[in-house]
Amino acid sequence: MNKSKRTEIFSRWRQIDPQPTTELEYQSTFELLIAVILSAQATDIGVNKATRRLFPVANTAADIFQLGEDGLKNYIKTIGLYNAKAANIIKTCQLLVTQYGGEVPANREALEALPGVGRKTANVVLNTAFGQATIAVDTHIFRVSNRTGIAKGKTPLEVEKRLLRLVPKQFHLHAHHWLILHGRYICKARKPNCKECIIRDLCDYKQKL
Q1: For residue 207, what pLDDT is reported?
Q2: Do 117 and 188 sit in the same domain of this protein?
């Protein structure tokens, strides 16, 4: 795929959705961080159901830390891997309170030092909360990037680096969300909805349905 095709693909996505954002529900940077930690191997819908119960009760690092692991589990037990996530979130909240005054740090190194926060989670927070041009490669972005030919790679990190190099810079800020939404609703894993796809004529996928 060449530069002109990539430019046209992202131009079309921008035209139909100029300001895309996450489908996770949050009211603060801290709430976003917790929601993204919970979203690992879980759906945004499932996370939103849990945080609608949790955040009205505890939506700061200090408040969630006071809940303790068992208290937190009561709110997130419908989410996969909730035991490990509860342990990590409590540790993260403790660090946020003791080292950052309860605020979420705005740099990658500090974010990735928090328990339960890997590169993908850090990228989402840096992009969505702090407006940095990062691209968090989840299963949707990995699939869409490889299937369409926008940026092929064998690992999420390889795809991330190729996206940052190949996608025109004017689209970097929102590329993450456009790719996710396309993968979630159109370019699905088992049965891509090629008939409804607005980039069908630009895509490299050979087995268009």
Answers
A1: 82
A2: no
Out of 138, 152, 201, 206, which one is annotated catalytic? 138
Structural domain for 140, as ranges: 3-21+134-196
Mean pLDDT, to the nearest integer, of 127-135?
94
pLDDT in tens, 40-99: 889 999 999 999 999 999 999 999 999 999 999 999 999 989 999 999 999 999 999 999
Of 85, 120, 154, 188, the catalytic one is 120
Instruction: Confirm whether 161 is a catalytic residue.
Output: no
Same domain, yes or no, for 178 and 90? no
Q: Is 120 a catalytic residue?
A: yes
3-state secondary structure of 77: coil
Q: What's this model's pTM, rounded to 2 decimal places?
A: 0.91
How far from 74 is each of 23, 53, 80, 136, CA to CA, in Å? 23, 10, 13, 29
Residues 120 and 70 in one domain: yes
